[in-house]
């Protein structure tokens, strides 16, 4: 038989569309041609496949070899097509049986010795293979990751020889049946933070309702320390959430099975570009906001980020996803992250400090704060000043509550929200706010006063209602009361100093 057909998959965003690998051998001068819109990595498979076959003591056909990766209009990238191309050549030349190839899907990058190296996107490949009811043959290093998908049979192959031995019936590969070695979470403990009771309260409110939060204050007051402890306050990921988060990291190539079910925490440097933050590239890849999906995105020194980079956050903060379009390519990635940021009040950092050490002029302070646009700040639910504590207060401060205690309260509050509306309060919109976030009569009067004095936009008004709903849930109150509204207004009124 001079023609062999195998199934593999490409990666387009988080999707893995099927690719039909067709290998044809014809008479003529020896040649090896790859068609079907392959990129540079795929075209280089010719040399890797030739060397791997020769190293494995297989006969490399001295004929005209044509490999077609269909559909022809789907871009192909990466080294995952090495294994199906090599097996296709062996099947087309009659060195292995071709009658059972239709039951499998193949993916794997070949080394020159024939060993199989791991590929990106094993989770996406496994999800699609499960839907088609096929067995997935892929490198052994990818098996723990792919096995997180239920309902799919994974055959972990260590090398090309192992895959050939299985297809020939000599040494069958046992389906992977291992469990991921999940490590216990090692989040920083909130008990390490001394004092700053208001900041700790704001952190608990943000964790309970999945609200965005901005800390500002002089250097060394604990803003970054507080932010790094937010993931340890959040409830554990559910099955669907954990799989979505892992899929993004799998496509990016950074997923580790031992981190299964752990909330991601991404903290890009302020020199990050817009493409690094939201994703991009000629072949779209997920950015930091997608890698923080179902986790926390921490932006330290917020005004030091390029303004265009920060403005790119506005849409995904509202929609929870990002669409990256390129000429001929389009990819959509999830981006339901919880934003927490920290900043100084002025360029030198000491504006309002008790010892009066700040030397920044009003114009310098205005330009510094002006780097944050009104529309971006309007999308932040909570803003809290983290003041400098006197040394005596730090020394006398008792140990704070540990993260485990706060996390238990957060879990109870989040359970109330999920039972009532099926989502955290921060994700409520439109009619849902009208249905679930209406305060009592005194709360309505207080809100009207706040709208007039703080010049709240409609978005700001709704965000105060959602924060008040979260505070009421933390107190297990069915109706939002004036005290809850007052705390929500207080946590937002600081935004008026920046706009």
From the structure above, extract its key features.
about 500 residues, alpha/beta, five-stranded parallel β-sheet, four-stranded mixed β-sheet, 21 helices, 18 strands, about 35% helix, elongated
Helix-strand category = alpha/beta
Strand order of the largest sheet: 11-14-17-10-18
Helix proportion range:
25-40%
Distance between the termini: 73 Å
Overall outline: elongated
Which stretches are low in confidence, meaning pLDDT under 50 for 5 or more residues running? Answer: none
**Main sheet record:** 5 strands, parallel
Radius of gyration: 28 Å
Tally of strands: 18
Mean pLDDT equals: 90
Strand content: 15-25%
Structure description:
The chain has 499 residues and is of the alpha/beta class. It has 21 helices and 18 strands. It has a five-stranded parallel beta sheet with strand order 11-14-17-10-18. α7 packs across α20 and α20 crosses α21.
